[in-house]
Amino acid sequence: MYLCAEKIIMMLKPNFLLRSDFxxxxxxxxxxxxxxxxxxxxxxxxxAENKPFKNITDLWIRGDHYKWRAMxxxxxxxxxxxxxxxxxxxxxxxxxxxxxxxxNPLHHWTSLELSKYFKIDxxxxxxxxxQVWDKTNGMLETExxxxxxLLLQSKVQILCTTDDPADSLDYHNLLSSxxxxxxxxxxxxxxxxxxxxxxxxFDAWIKKLSKESRIKITTLDNLLHxxxxxxEDFHDAGCRASDHGLEYxxxxxxxxxxxxxxxxxxxxxxxxxxxxxxxxxxxILTSIARMNFKRGWVMMLHLxxxxxxxxxxxxxxxxxxxxxxxxxxxxAAHLNRFMSNLENDGNLPKIVIFNSNPADNLVxxxxxxxxxxxxxxxKIQFGPGWWFLDSIRGMTEQINSLSEVGLLHHFIxxxxxxxxxxxxxxxxxxxxxxxxxxxxxxEQGMVPADFSRLxxxxxxxxFENPKxxxxxxxxxxxxx
Length: 480
What we know:
With 480 residues, the protein is of the alpha/beta class. It has two domains: 54-144, uronate isomerase, domain 2, chain A (Orthogonal Bundle); 145-470, TIM Barrel (Alpha-Beta Barrel), CATH 3.20.20.140. The protein is built from 20 helices and nine strands. The chain has helices at residues 3-11, 21-30, 44-49, 56-60, 65-73, 87-97, 105-118, 129-139, 147-153, 170-176, 199-213, 220-236, 256-267, 274-295, 311-317, 332-345, 361-367, 392-405, 425-443, 451-470, and strands at residues 35-37, 156-160, 183-185, 241-246, 298-303, 305-306, 325-326, 350-355, 380-382. It has a four-stranded parallel sheet with strand order 4-5-8-9, covered by helices on one side. It has a three-stranded parallel sheet with strand order 1-2-3. α2 (21-30) packs parallel to α20 (451-470), α11 packs across α12 and α12 (220-236) packs parallel to α14 (274-295).
């Protein structure tokens, strides 16, 4: 019944995705490098508290909207995805879905994760689900599977979490005080500051930010002061990047006087029209960019997704629950204008642009060459394939577009963008793909068949380039 699944799992051996001895040798030389994960959604609380996971569902399935989407497509009722079914029932529902994920990266990720962390190389599906449930849950009772140990097991050297300016940094401070050998630093994610069009949620966020910053926010100046204060707090905690989830890069002209009018209108309860909302978002985005430039931070722009499309699910479960799509927004003019305005003001920080629509790959790849300062290598980066594009084809197309019009040698490599402690296998997935791609082109005479040179290049992409680009500080008395 599962012959095809078994064949693919049999491929997840030393030569998985590696089609030649040359590619296998490249992977052996570079595939086990430490991981620098500059964008993740792992909860800092779980790392700080370091409590055991309840079971394999708690570790592997809970909150994973990638899996939920596949299960829903497979006709699984919602109670087995995000609902109130037991953890074992949810696990069995996922096991019943996996055999149908052929050609979806979920099939490869599932196999890689079971093999890497639990030494399970057999076919995973309904017939083996009970055995896998028992084996994995038994292993989760050991210290090796505590949250912090999982990062060490994965050879993570640097991990960036994603944190709202209104979030407390107490867990980060606790973790950094305990001499944990993985550098775990926050990332400044001020998306809520853009959401002035939603009166109640924006008001709730303002109150939370006011409490955390200890600044009473009644004016726009107060809000900017609070954001600046939290930006400094994050910097002191080792943060060196802001992150922004946007449909497109807002670049409407909006000076502080107009932004103040929009803020006062919101404060008085007046609805914020679309033009005012876009101008407000441009103002906030530009303000954060200037803070980033001042402190030498990187700005990460995740662009192009249309989120929370199923309003019924959103009302029930909230945001980020698996009902998002690739968007078809115009990107080029907005993105270039945003960066050009900052360049003209002398406030353009380093920026990583992430694309979610493969049709826009060349738009993004050509945009990064438009802005430079004569000293920073690849000041603007085209980030790796993310979300719907972290598949073999999606990653390959991003790499090819970047290579054709940019400098692949300076690429900052892969990131997980995940809430799962097992998702670091995605770095292996990416590394295998990169080793094979370069090896194939070396064998075709398209790049030099110089093993040392190609291994050096991969060492940069997999490990050294992101460290240099983000320039995290030395913490805990260690050199990163």
